[in-house]
Write a structure and sequence with these properties.
Length: 381
């Protein structure tokens, strides 16, 4: 009862199902990463780092699940300022990688960290608090204009890294949170019409070869979209996705098995690039087959559904919006990663939650779900 007094939670409400889904996906993820990089054992430095990240993430997740989310959202202004400063820091001190994109910062112990991943959590907390405070005035133009400005600052900093894919994910997260707030349908309809017209304009610019007029769009990003629109004209650029589709298809129903040494494997023939990261779904498709892929997708769906169920029982609006934000993030990011690996979307560097190698994306997803677990603990009676 002393614990009960300290936390004032009813632990019968603790969502063990959500933790189970996370552990199943993460454990499978570690096996797939080991197979993707052809490591001989789990002691391989890259695999060991992934395992350490998984333990650290789960510990942080369970720790956070016991911290009242309302206490965290009360400090959302500081979290927001910290996120913006982090992104400015990346611009100044960051280390560049492919295409000259500066997205990483070197941190002692952890090594390279991608701050944009953690900014997703910060934005979810900030907007959950903002819409909670403004819920009675949310339809006033100045309230929405201010929200847009708050979003524009971090989104622009991420876009300038350049990191278009993460900017799109951040946009989808915040859009879903706005949709779940008490906003009037007029605003939603207006934004949808503008987005549709904007999409038509982009399509026209690409079709007529005027894409170099689009501000902030880098050459390699334009090239990826052009490759997606006309794969036959840029075979070299499409190879990556074509090999990924070939790998997934070759897995058939049962797959070739993890850690296989088959010479007929697309992965073992070194035809896949980024197979431990952006294209890890190609390894899942090839080695676990259609059956394994579908089971993994079902577990992601279960996490999305669990977030929505928790959202529907949340104590207040900020709790509901946190769940919707995390749901949109995991759902859309998973969908996008698989859509790229199967050729449904242009090639974008997006990780698959719980699977792709890299500690930043793993820890950030655990942080987000830890806060969702706390919302679940404090459901309305």
């Amino acid at each position: 009862s002393r614990i009960r007094m300290k936390f004032d939670y009813d632990f019968r409400n603790y969502d063990f199902r959500l933790i189970l889904y996370m552990i199943i996906l993460n454990v499978t993820g570690v096996f797939v990463v080991r197979s993707a990089i052809n490591a001989d054992s789990f002691q391989d430095p890259q695999v060991a780092r992934q395992i350490m990240g998984a333990f650290a993430g789960l510990a942080m997740c369970i720790g956070l699940s016991l911290v009242d989310y309302r206490k965290i959202t009360q400090r959302s202004k500081f979290i927001y300022i910290f996120c913006v400063l982090l992104l400015i820091g990346v611009k100044i001190y960051g280390t560049a990688a492919g295409h000259g994109a500066t997205r990483w910062v070197r941190v002692p112990v952890l090594g390279q960290v991608q701050p944009a991943e953690f900014v997703k959590v910060g934005l979810i907390l900030f907007f959950a608090d903002y819409f909670q405070k403004m819920k009675d005035e949310i339809n006033f133009p100045h309230v929405l204009a201010l929200a847009f400005l708050y979003f524009l600052i971090p989104a622009s900093l991420v876009l300038l890294q350049p990191n278009l894919s993460t900017t799109i994910i951040m946009t989808v997260i915040v859009a879903c949170m706005v949709f779940a707030s008490p906003i009037h349908i007029r605003w939603i309809a207006g934004v949808l019409i503008v987005s549709f017209l904007f999409g038509l304009l982009l399509y026209y610019l690409f079709r007529s070869g005027l894409y170099d007029k689009i501000p902030l769009l880098r050459g390699y990003q334009a090239e990826r979209i052009l490759t997606f629109m006309n794969p036959s004209e840029n075979q070299q650029g499409y190879n990556q996705q074509q090999n990924s589709i070939m790998a997934i298809g070759s897995g058939l129903l049962k797959g070739k098995g993890l850690f296989n040494h088959s010479i007929f494997s697309v992965k073992n023939g070194d035809f896949l690039s980024e197979q431990d990261n952006d294209f890890i779904f190609a390894v899942i498709g090839e080695e676990l087959g259609f059956r394994g892929s579908v089971i993994i997708i079902i577990f992601f769906l279960l996490i999305v559904l669990e977030c929505l169920i928790i959202a529907s029982k949340a104590k207040n609006l900020s709790g509901r919006l946190i769940c919707v934000g995390v749901m949109a993030w995991i759902g859309f990011q998973t969908y996008t990663n698989i859509a790229v690996a199967t050729g449904l979307f242009p090639n974008t560097g997006i990780t698959l939650p719980f699977f792709s190698r890299g500690v930043s994306s793993l820890l950030s997803v655990y942080l987000g779900l830890g806060i969702v677990l706390n919302v679940a603990l404090q459901r309305k009676t």
